[in-house]
Amino acid sequence: MYVTMKLRYLVLGLALLSAGACSKKDPSVPGSGNNGQTTNTDPVTVDESIFTDPGLISTKSSSTIIMDSLVKYLSYTPKGAVVYINVFLFSYPPVVSAVKAAYVRGVQMKVIIDSSRDDSRSENDATIKLLESTFQSPSEILTTDNEIDATWAINHSKYVLFSEVDLPRGIAKNVVFATSHNFTLGQTKMIQDAVVMTNKALYDAFVDNWEQLATYAKDMQDYQYTVKDAGDSITAFFFPRRKDGKWDGGDTILDQLAELSDYSKDTVRVFMASTWSGARGVNIAKALTDLEKKGARVEVITMSDIDASVITQLNVLSGAGGYVKIMDVNKEVDHSKVMLIKGVWDGSMQRIVLMGSENYGEGALKYNNNFLLRLRNSSLFASYWNYYEKLKITL
C-alpha cells in the first residue's frame, strides 16, 4: 500500500513538472516570451523614440535602426493579433518578409499602400503583388488612388498599429508605430525619426484614420480633416486639411506657433525635409522669422533643395539672429518633419514635439494624406532635443 501511494505521488509530481515545462514559452518562436520564461500577463508600456544615425547618414551609409525596430515588433506579434499598416512606399525586404511571416503565423494583416503616382506604383508594385497573392480574408491589402484636385496627390502617411505585441518583458497592447520613414532601403540613408507608444485612445484614432482611408481609397474627395485627442497631452492630426470637399483655410503648423506668447522664454527648433515649398512654406518661414524678431530663439536645419523662395526667407531669419543650417542634398538627406517647442505655449511653460509625415508644403496641407502628432510634455522631448543637437554637430 505504501509503495503504491509513493508511486502515485511520483507520477503526479512528474505530471506537474511536465505541465510547468509546457507552460513556458519557446524563446526561438517570435512572440513567445522571454528566454523561456512565462510572459508577464500584465500589459506593459512602450514609450520610445527612434532615430537614424546621423554619423552613418553623413557618409551616405544605411542606418536601419527604425526598420529593424519595425521588424522586431512584427516578429513579436502573436497569432490572433491585428496589424494595420498605412505607408506611401513599401519595398524594404526585411519588413516585407516580417509581414508575410506574421500573416503565416496567424496575425490578421490590414495593409494600405499608395498607388497614386508612377513613382509609388513602381516602388510598391512587387510588394502589392506578393501580398495580394498571399493574403486571404479577413487580411487584406488596399491601394489608394488619391487625386484630390491634383493628379500628384498621394497617401503619404507612414504608420503601423499593433493590437498586441508579445515582447520579451510582457504583452504590450494598442501599440502605435509612427514614423517619417518609408519602408524602403533608400530611406535608411536619410535622417528619420519614429515614436512607438502604447495608448488606447491614440491607437483607436489611428485605426479610425486607417478605416476612413480604406473607405475613400479610390476617391479622397470627401475625406474630412480630423483631430483626435488621446488624453490631455497627445493629439493626432490627420490630413489633408479639408472640409466639405475643399481646404478649410487653416494651417496646423501656423496654429501651433501662434500659441507662443512669452518670446523671451520661447525656443523653436525645426529639422525639415526637402519638401518645404510654395506659399505655405514661405509663410511658415516668415512666422519663424517673426518669432525671432520678437525675442524668441529659432533654429532650423533643412535641405539645400527646398524652394528658393523659402531659402530667401530663411536667410532673413538668419539675418535676424536665428540659426539656419542648410544641408547639401548631395552629401546628406533629412527626411524628418519635426518641430520642437520649448516655451510659454497656450499660456503655460511647455515642451512640445511635433512629428509625423507632414511636410511644409501646399500639397501636404491641402491634398495629401498625412499625420501629425503633437506630444506635450512628453518624456520623449529630451531625446528629440538631444538628437537635434547631434544633427548640428554631425552634419
Number of separate strands: 17
Sheet with most strands: strand arrangement: 8-9-17-16-15-12-13-14
**What's the gyration radius in Å?**
24 Å
Low-confidence stretches: 1-38
Integer tally of domains:
2
% residues in beta strands: 25-35%
The total of helices stands at: 11
Bulk shape: globular
Q: How do the SSEs run, as a string of H and E? A: HEHHEHEHEEEEHEEEEHEHEHEEEHEH
CATH domain class of the largest domain:
Alpha Beta
Reported for the largest beta sheet, the result is: 8 strands, mixed
CATH homologous superfamily grouping of the largest domain: Endonuclease Chain A
Q: Please, could you describe this protein's structure?
A:
The protein is α+β, with helices and mostly antiparallel strands. The longest helix is centred in the N-terminal third of the chain and has 22 residues. The chain starts with a helix and ends with a helix. Strands 8-9-17-16-15-12-13-14 form an 8-stranded mixed sheet, with helices on both faces. Strands 1-7-6-5-2-3-4 form a 7-stranded mixed sheet, sandwiched between helices. A two-stranded antiparallel ribbon has the order 10-11. The protein has 11 helices and 17 strands.
